[in-house]
Amino acid sequence: MILIYLVAFFLAASFVSFFNLFDDRRRRGENWVAGRSRCESCGRRIPWPYLIPVLGYIFCRGRCTCGEKISPYHPLSEGIGGALVVFLLHYLGMEKASVFPVAAVFLMYLLALEDSRHQDVFTGDLVVGGAFFVAALILDGSIYPLSGAFLFCLIGALYFLFPKAVGEGDIYYASILALGIGEIWRSYLFFTVTFVSAALIGGGLYFFKCLKQKAVPMFPFFLLGFLIVGIYL
């Protein structure tokens, strides 16, 4: 069992690493299929041991061969992604039926990463991730349209009142997640947990200057709220 969890962790972490590479290169207009990974500071090729998810950051002690620091975003995003998959497999069980829901939540995690890093998510990414998530809910027989509609109206009203604080993507992302939350009162709880955690964590990061911009990326907090309410409450 432990071996399966380790394999799942590194597979998920590797996919996160690939997604980060893919997202960076397409935004720069570069070929994401060919070409070795290079240091963002000096342009040197990164040795392959340093490319191992999570462990590579430890091997290189957080620095490139040129001496420049490597952003901890990479090992953190990879480690959290791997831990999320292991947790979901443990919670849902190791049956074949759990693979599709785990993959669906993992795709929503990738969207949260994209939003946290760029505060901008490609429409195609949201469509693909959302469609996969909805398909998983339908196959599982646990889709709740009223909860999704309730969150759509609630966050849509926030967008209308505070367009600088909430984006259009937030409306769709939260509504898709809410489709997996049973009762309407729980979807409201999901909304509350999301914005309280965003205020506390986002405010703390901004206070300690870990967050450069005043606007807080909401996708990660929507996913956090979904996991808390959907699993524990």
TrEMBL record:
PANTHER family: PREPILIN LEADER PEPTIDASE_N-METHYLTRANSFERASE-RELATED, TYPE 4 PREPILIN-LIKE PROTEINS LEADER PEPTIDE-PROCESSING ENZYME. This is Prepilin peptidase. Pfam families: A24_N_bact. The keyword Membrane applies. Residues 11-89 form the Prepilin peptidase A24 N-terminal domain. Keywords: Membrane, Transmembrane, Transmembrane helix. It comes from Aedoeadaptatus acetigenes. The keyword Cytoplasm does not apply. The chain crosses the membrane at residues 6-22, 83-109, 121-139, 146-162, 188-208, 215-232.
